[in-house]
Design brief:
heterodimer, A: alpha/beta, 7-stranded parallel sheet, 5-stranded parallel sheet, 9 helices, 16 strands, globular, B: alpha/beta, 9-stranded mixed sheet
Chain lengths: 313, 249
Amino acid sequence: MAKVLLIAEHDGTSLNPNTGKCIACASSIAGAEIDVAVFAEFAGDIAAQAAELESVSRVLKSENAAYRGGLAAILAPQIVAMAGDYDYVLGPSTTFGKDIMPRVAALLGVNQVSDVMSVEGERTFKRPIYAGSAVVTVEAPAGVTVVGTIRTASYRAVGTGNSAAVESVDLSADVPDHTRYVGSETGKSDRPDLQSAARVVAGGRALGSEENFDLIFKLADKLEAGVGASRAAVDAGYVPNEMQVGQTGRIIAPDLYIAIGISGAIQHVTGIKDAGTIVAINKDEEAPIFEIADIGLVGDLFNVVPELTEALD
Amino acid sequence: MEKILVGLKRVVDYNVRVRVKGDGSGVETEGVKMSINPFDEIALEEALRIKERGEASEVIVVSIGSGDAQQQLRTGLAMGADRAILVETATALDPLSNARAFLEIVKRENPELVILGKQAIDNDNAQTGQMLAALWGRPQATFASKLEFSGDSVRVTREVDAGLDVIEVDLPAVVTADLRLNEPRYVKLPDIMKAKKKPLDQVPVAELSLPESPAIAETAFEPPAARERGIMVDDVAGLVGALKDKGLL
């Protein structure tokens, strides 16, 4: 039996959909018995959502007002206090998991396996390096807890319909006061969330300005798609960083990805290569994006995109 | 603030297209251009700006790596760092050992602030900063895009998946730099000459008596699964048709 503790990500009220993908990864470990940990100010609803996910044995909830904002310095010691009997402590490879899990690993005296894309054996995993230019097989040493983050784009979420037991856990780790949550500015919009959207339309530097990025938003609205951007477009200030797709931004796997005015540098491609269908629209027929696109269209985006938006009426 | 420590890692340059060796034993790094990890450059730029605003007195750049990493430290000195420390190791350390080595330097120097890049673009591990903060028992502010100091604390805006988070941490603390924290300066030729005279201490890693680390073994390397090149369409009508054929519209 392999005891797995999975740290659930949430926004204070709802479970993040990446949790189902993390469970899919965890259940590919032979003999996995999966407990999901929910740390929240009010954990009830979140824990109930986690309990519905297939393959979950138990949901462990710990409530404390200090958990608001999900601060690593506060959560990591609590996770360590819970980790005792587990063979694996896992989290999503999102900004939440990337922040917390290495702190957990260090407190446990181990290294972390970052961005697990497949489980190859009891302690053997594959993960991407060099912006996905290479895939390395890694083996965690025997006799220590395996701490890892999961590249959620590599997995399809498990189904629901389970009713796992939910248990409250009292933890005794100190809550440090040297780190304080102040607040969040989330770019709330009615558009589907980039990370979980079935369709994503993304723009690159070729858009030329923040105003022109409107073309991307209009097409996305027509397709009910999330909106992404290349690092170049973020660097140029056209859109905020949370829209960045690629090595240093989001790693996503929508059913349909439409790359507009994006050349297709490896750092960007690594963020989309698990997408179902990739469409590329670019005026440079030599652009590397066409080498990985399922459907390519060479043309000026300022003509093609409005025409496409209209054609979808 | 007296001191800021900045980590500089020597990595394969951002623009190099990395290839897996034919025998799967690693990636080809022979003869390729090496640079400062781009996020570390941003970390250093931020430290220099803090110093130039009069909020810190000294900026020290630290690298853990082979003797060749002196090149990147010299570049850091040319950018404006006051001195450099190279923890010299013939073989690359795992993230936990890097954090432990960094902690030893932190104990010697007692900085109020340590700034590292949020990840190195070679192994993409994104672990060292968080591990250092854990071992040091101090706050961490990862993926920082803005720092505002007041007294003994710093308010940090963090780039997270949902947008921006703002947290406040007491000093000393570890910050990891994200892309939009700043735009690093270019190094000027006279500064490169001046940097040659700045102190660069070499510390053999053995001197730090690091505990043995449960390193994660890298057993095989392979190129990523390739996506096949698909079809080209001539116009919007062709695109819409192709999407319909795939059941996507």
